[in-house]
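Kindly draft a sequence, keeping tokens residue-aligned:
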Amino acid sequence: MRIMDLSADRPDLLEQAAQLLVEGFREHWPDAWPEIEAAREEVSECLDPEMICRGAVDDAGLLLGWIGGRPEYDGNVWELHPMVVRSDHRRQGVGRALIADLESQVRARGGLTIMLGTDDVDESTTLGGADLYTDLWEQIRLIRNLKDHPYEFYQRCGYTIIGVMPDANGRGKPDIYMAKRL
């Protein structure tokens, strides 16, 4: 596996990237990219020269996963968005390698922090479906993973929950904010 820039001169990889968005988010967040055209638009947006768009590719040219980074706060903070790994290659180090690569890319651009939002739209955590306007920090402290939500993966990569946006995706469907200082 090698990690490389995704670019317009590799339309085969860009199409695979769009397909991965549709397939990869279908289970936990089907409204994210419900159709291929919306996913193609997201991939195209990530190709902006100001952004980072990197893919993990195997020796046969199969895109195993990809990650995007967007500068915020004058480049001091970068948003990790999006990240997806093929379902048949999860738990094999692809996601961890993509995150490590993004962190390296962001450091090289002078970034200090990477942040991300990881939505809970299907009550995959104890924050989903809860009234987060009551004792918020205690609820964050006691968070539990109910349905393989990715927040624990990000924690294993060194990211910390820094807050939530209650009702970001509808009542009881928060966005969990995480960040890591580089």
